[in-house]
Structures are given as structure tokens and as C-alpha cells.
């Protein structure tokens, strides 16, 4: 399976887009982080490739933390009604069922969305300030996708969009992130 398709499937989790993103980000920038890596530095100052590799490992660790946090929250039994309306993989789900659903969130679902957003707030990735340009691009894409997904949830909760539009937006976010990461990988090979 091609990287773009794989990353789109992984990233299409409606509740978060980060679960499995560790794998995608790792595939995307592994060539950047390892290119030119030396086994040992000649002196006490780490080489540029070693600094890049260390920074990349910090980013991966933060993605793992965020992904685990969100996956745990999303799997909570109390959020089952949200999982029923937003499939875990919008690429494999019956398109008409989820993507064309014209129903808006009920008041009870709106309250559940609020609770979900509160629950995952501490899960938001904090990458600090990466110094490597490709790492800055990756973290910016992930942060932007996080923000866009939160906005979709808020619009759904407020009745501005239907479940179908929410699922389409989630899929679009996943596809954009996947495409952006794939493009970044290609430009850094």
C-alpha cells in the first residue's frame, strides 16, 4: 500500500487524526533525520545530524504521548455515541451512511462533544520550538490539523454542520495532512 493511502487511512480517525500518525511521521522524515548521521561525535558538541535525530525523537515521543492520550479518551465507553456517528476509518466506511448523514448533533451529543473536547484538551501535542526546517513543517501541519479538527467538532456541537459534513471534513483533514507529509518526504529525499 502506498504511503499516502496508508497515512490517509491512519489519519482519518475522526476523534483525533493523531492515532497512528507516529508511524506516518516516522516514515515521512526518517530519511531527513538519519541522512548524514554519524555514529559518534568527534567532540563534546553533537553534530548537526545528531541534533536533528534527537529533535526528531522528541517529536515522535510527543506524538506517541498525544496519540495514546487521545486513543484512551476516544475509547472510553461514555463516548460510544460519538463513535457510532463518526467511523474510525472514513475511507472504508459505507460512504452514504456516514458522509451523507444530514442529521445535526442532538443536544445530548453536543454535550458529549463538549465533554470529549475537554477530555482531549491535555492531549494536544506540544512540540516546543523545533529548529530543523522539515521538523517545523511537520509540527505545523500536525498542529494545524489539530486546530481544524477541533473547529469541526465545535461547528458540529453548535449545529452549524451535520454529521456528514463533519465526517467529510475529517476525511479531508486526513487527506490534506497525508498529502502534506508525503510532499514533505519527497522534497527531503
What does the model show?
With 189 residues, the chain is mainly α. The protein has one domain. Helices cover 67% and strands 0% of the residues. Helix 2 packs antiparallel against helix 3 and helix 7 runs antiparallel to helix 8. The longest helix has 28 residues. The radius of gyration is 18 Å and the shape is elongated. The N terminus is likely disordered.
What is the average of the pLDDT values?
Answer: 77
Oligomer: single chain
Count of helix runs: 8
Global shape: elongated
Calculate the terminal CA-CA distance, rounded to whole Å. Answer: 19 Å
Name a few traits of the molecule.
67% helix, single chain, 189 residues, mainly alpha, disordered N terminus
Q: What does the secondary structure layout of this molecule look like, with pairings?
A:
Blueprint: H1 3-11, H2 21-34, H3 48-75, H4 80-85, H5 95-99, H6 107-120, H7 133-157, H8 163-187
Q: In brief, what are we looking at here?
A:
The protein has 189 residues and is mainly α. Helix content is 67%, strand content 0%.
